[in-house]
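Q: I'm writing up a methods section and want to include an example of the input and output format. Could you take the sequence below and give the corresponding predicted C-alpha cells, formatted cleanly so I can copy it straight into the document?
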Amino acid sequence: MAFPTICPVSRRFKAAEFPTKRFTSINGAGTTRLYGNKGFDATLDVQFLVNDDNLVAIVDNWEASFGTYLPVTLPPSVIAGNDDLLDDLVPDYLEWHWAEPPSVESVNLGLHRVTVKLIAHLEIDP
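A: Here is the clean output for your methods example:
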C-alpha cells in the first residue's frame, strides 16, 4: 500500500535489532547467543503538519493497510534528505508496516499535527 506523498516535519529512526539472547549463570558470568544474521523491527516515527485532505489520505492509508497487517511503500518524500542514510541502515529485506494507528492533534482550523509510527518487519516468505 503506497503511503501518501507528504514531506514530514520531523523523523526519528531506530536501527534494526538482531535475534540475540543473553544467558547469565548464578555467579554472574554469561554468554550471548545470536540466533540469526538478519535484523528486524527497525522503527521510523514521522510527524507531519498537514491540512484536512492530507490527514484523510494518511488515515485512508491506515485503513487500506488494514492497520498493521499489510506492508506500506514509503514514497521518497517521507525519507527525503535521509534517503541515503535509511538505505544504508534499513536492509532491503525488511518491509515497513504501521506500528500503531496515526495520532492526530488539531493545531488550528484545517491544520493538524499527525504522528505516524512505522516498523520494518522481517517477513517469512510463503
